[in-house]
Amino acid sequence: MDTAFIYYKPVTGKNNIGRRSEQTTVANLLDQGENVVIYEPAKTGKKSLMQQTFYNMRVSGKQFNTAEVPMLQVRSTEDMLLTFGSAIIRALATTPEEYADIVRNCLQDTHFVFDPDLYAATDAVLSLSWSLDENDIRSMLGLPWRIAAVNGRKLYVILEEFQNVTFLENWEKFLKIFEETIRTNQSGLCNFVFLGSAVNAMKFIFEEKVFFHRQVNHVSIGEIEAREITDHIVRGFLTSGKVIDRDLMMSVAKRFHNNIWYINHFASICDHLTKGYITDATLQEALEMLISIHEPRFKELVSDLTGFQVSLLKATLDGCKRFSSAEVIERYQLHSSANVRRLKDALCKKEIITFGENDEPKVLDPLFEYWARKYFFKMTDE
Questions:
Q1: What is the mean pLDDT of residues 329-333?
Q2: How far apart, in Å, are the Cα atoms of 223 and each of 51, 220, 290, 294, 336?
Q3: What is the pTM (predicted TM-score) of this model?
Q4: How far is C-alpha 235 from the chain's CA centre?
């Protein structure tokens, strides 16, 4: 069913609002042969940003190919390389004969093969004839440049949920080989976009361990302006003959910290609850429904928090910034400054909070923040 409030897939065109400066920045970097890294919480709009950016680039006359490498299920080096190679081959070929040609011509002297029987049974375009060795890793990571040279068009490789690279058995060595591969190949043929929704895990790779130093450019995704979100939602309701007060919608945007995914989901629920004017009661019912959908995830998130970790989360929601101060430690019974450091690390690893440049804490999920305030801690203010 056609809807103005799309939250279940990435969007482009009229459904993609805001982020114009980010689109321009990413497009310019890629056009100049630079690699890009973006790490923001899940459902912040990373894929929509990339899809709209590539659409804009094509409209402007740029010719290129893209390959999306889904790393969500990657747990080993073998998984990584087979997923990586399969995505790139499928981006540029469509038939078994073409798959076989690419493997034969671009992955010669490796243990990667195209097995027609396995392809017929499982749709796999790549498999291994022997255990991996370092030559296999280097050759596979260099595949995008070789295949782009043969194809004659620039190739952009999007590595989704890149933080999962840390699941590899020797992930640091793997990333060092990846760095060397980028350094020794021509950027004009292939560039990478590293996407990650585990913000702190990505910070660990790119900021703490400093992999791909001077090889990637970090692009942050800013909040969409509440006014633009409000215009989008008001227009969407008008298409189905419904009306919402602009001030009410502005307050909704503020509650969700201008997170367009949650707001579109919320608006879709409202759209199904009424046939006319959208009242305060409609908004409250829609909010309760949205909370009920996501509450199991939120409960799971807090279920294994220790008492100390819960206390640090409460301090964060209360607006505390200097957790190691004697006043905060005593008030929230955090035990010691050494314990505070451990608690901060624990909540970061659980991807509940993150810390900015000035070490200011931020809850990563705006709806979880609201739920934690109202339902978990039962705080009176929102």
A1: 95
A2: 18, 10, 21, 22, 35
A3: 0.94
A4: 28
